[in-house]
Design goal:
Number of domains: 2
CATH class of the largest domain: Mainly Beta
Structural class: mainly beta
CATH topology of the largest domain: Pectate Lyase C-like
Length: 644
Amino acid sequence: MRSTLRAPRARVSRRIGQALAAGVALTLVSAATATAAPAPSASATDPDLGPGTTVFDPSMPVSEIQATVDAIHAKQVSAEMGSDRYALLFEPGVYGTDEEPLQIKVGYYTEVVGLGADTGDVTINGAVEVYNQCFDDPSNPEFVGCFALNNFWRGVSNLTIDVNKAGQGGCESSANFWAVSQAVSMRRVDVTGGNLTLMDYCTGPSFASGGFIADSRSASITNGSQQQWFTRNSEVGAWSNAVWNQVFAGVVGAPDDRDYPTTPYTTLETTPVSREKPYLFVDDAGVYQVRVPSAATETRGLSWDEGLTAGRTIPLGDFFVAEPGVSEQQVNSQLARGKHLLLTPGVYDIDRSISVKRADTVVLGLGLATLHSVGGAVPLRIADVPGVVVAGITVDAGEVESPALLQVGRPNSPSSPRKSSAANPTTLSDVYFRVGGPYVGRTDVALEVNSDDVLVDHTWVWRADHGIEGFDRTDGTFGDNERWRTNIGRTGVVVNGDRVTATGFFVEHFQEHNVVWNGEDGEVVFFQNELPYDPPTQADWTADDGTLGWAAYKVADDVQRHTLTGGGVYAFNRNNPSIVTANGYEVPETPLVVLNHVMTKNLSGPGIIESIVNGVGDRVDGIPPAGDPDSYEDPAYLVRYPVG
């Protein structure tokens, strides 16, 4: 069932403005829930969502919309370390015609969002696409060619793509291209009229490093060269192939995984804990609302195929709508008064924690709104309360070391029962973390989860392996000689709470364990990790007890119950090819701590992982076995640990 479409309103879309300067005052939107009388206020039907947001309506000429989205893409296609952020919002209706399709290309820090209550309320007759980037820099031989390896930080959600490539010739006309890697989400998308491909096979196939789809549908999906991928609660008619670690949970039509690892699929019939991401929509009266889906267990398939996604609706007037430059004191004051928080696109310098203390508070970012730590602050703290939902933000470390970038629950909390709810877990959806890259970053831990009953639904926690910080590169490689001692990130994620679930768990390049799991009854579905590229010496990559390196995934020795399904750990020690890591995973040897379908891989030669878990599993060292038909060494796999 689809919600009733309202007639398009004659209006002029807001134009993208200049990047906000420091000190811009916050914007407070006050809107009432729509009623028959009086008429909705202008702020309820046409709120100010910041100069980084453009709202389109279907009465606009296709050529005008096309020119706007093309201009934003031209700015963002190569802006990997840039500071601009954009949200492209489409009111209910159809965009593009059979003869003049709307073809949207999505660059860095750009989010394309339908404003319907249902995915069918907004239709893009055309395409919403990401293509390979092409490089030709002989001084960086690793970055010559065309690939999707760095196509990070973007998203599409809550709309139908009726694939129409009229006007595009040759290879590009065959499908909707979505050639992406980490920190990219596709949610609540219905792909009709053509196929979806996760690689750009017109200038490839070449390197692509995995992404995330949830609550979406497509008749056919081409995986292609995606090294790993996680798909959750969706419908697929056909999936083309696997590479190293393709994982499905609650997906109708997912491929069978019985011949793992010959074909490295991992398929769960249901998702153990799920909650779809909140979404902005416009109701039949033209009033802006936020739908907050409910949490559920053991789910399968789409949330929207039989009507409105289960959950609650919050008027946008109940949100504090902020722009960069707002003070943390103002934000915290509004949160304390019971407001939710909407962060419009931009980079927010945070020198005092934003503190969410009230249960069921929603913090929603548009256009990958970014919180940047200043002076060693923890940019976001969530109290030990149930039902908080944080979605669609990036949290960056700053030059002064922080103890953490996001804390859920109080660290070192007393042993009294925590205020959590298994039926209403605090949830992080599309929340990304970055240490280094656009500027020097330092933190002890990126994400610290101290509360019980927390759901992490898609995160990329990244200590940057490249950036524009200006490090010395006189060694003639793509690597650097200073990053290890300058961009400090010791641990990516620390989980101290019980019954914490993570689905779509990307954590990479930290200087000790990437993940440390101390809580009981934890469950992870899909884990992706690259060990740090840049330890200068083996001494720098040796634990205090003499163990060579730190396992990417560490479950504490006293944990009795834990499950990981579908994990991949990769080595690429470009700054010192002799680096050795003893284990990809380390877990206590107890019957109820179980790893299913886990693997390790050497990416292209430098560095060694001696075993998969606890000394079990084959060594990977980048050397192909005799007779191997490929130029790279095959991964090492374990079907289950404990073995037997």
